Amino acid sequence: MPSSPNVVAGRSCGTCTLCCRLPDIDLFDKPANVWCRHCVAGKGCSIYVDRPSVCRDFLCLWMTDAGFAEIWEPSRSHMMVYRQGPQITVLVDPDHPDIWRREPYHAQLRDWAREAEATGGYVIVFRQDDVFKI
Ligand code: SF4
Ligand code: SF4
Questions:
Q1: Which partner for 113 in 71, 106, 125, 134 could form a disulfide, CB atoms 3.0-4.6 Å apart?
Q2: Is the predicted pLDDT of residue 17 greater than 90, yes or no?
Q3: CA of 108 to the centre of ligand 1 (A)
Q4: Cα dist. 40→21, 48, 92, 95 in Å?
Q5: What is the helix, strand, coil percentage profile of the chain, to 5?
Q6: How far is the CA of 39 from the centre of ligand 2 (A)?
Q7: Is 38 close to ligand 2, i.e. is its CB under 6 Å away?
Q8: Which ligand sits nearest to residue 65's alpha carbon?
Q9: How many CB atoms lie within 10 A of CB 8?
Q10: What are 62-110's pLDDT values in tens digits?
């Protein structure tokens, strides 16, 4: 990924491709938790130069928020976190469905929910067909 003014110094996507799998992407008729048809295992996006803005403009919070500790690196936490207005959205890798309930992650999610609540925000966890509000 090219350097971006929004990216925390020293962080990069590396081999992580979670955002090409976990979210649904209407543009590609891609359901959640299914690999994008343009993602090549172990390599990344096969249309990288021409990828659409929905991909080009997206960065998860681990990439853009220095307050996110290294344990939240998506390839390590098996979760992808981003903001949608007041909502902090957490998508859980279906290959690691219970990781969000384990520590230190669960305590951190509860802390985020408490902090967000003060300004009307909240945390939502999506795990396959399950949705949890924290
Ligand atoms: S989930 Fe984050 S770190 Fe992983 S590929 Fe997407 S933007 Fe990069
Ligand atoms: S087009 Fe490329 S960057 Fe966008 S979701 Fe598919 S593989 Fe990922």
A1: 134
A2: yes
A3: 19
A4: 11, 11, 21, 18
A5: 30, 20, 50
A6: 6
A7: yes
A8: 1
A9: 15
A10: 999 999 999 999 999 999 999 999 999 999 999 999 999 999 999 999 9
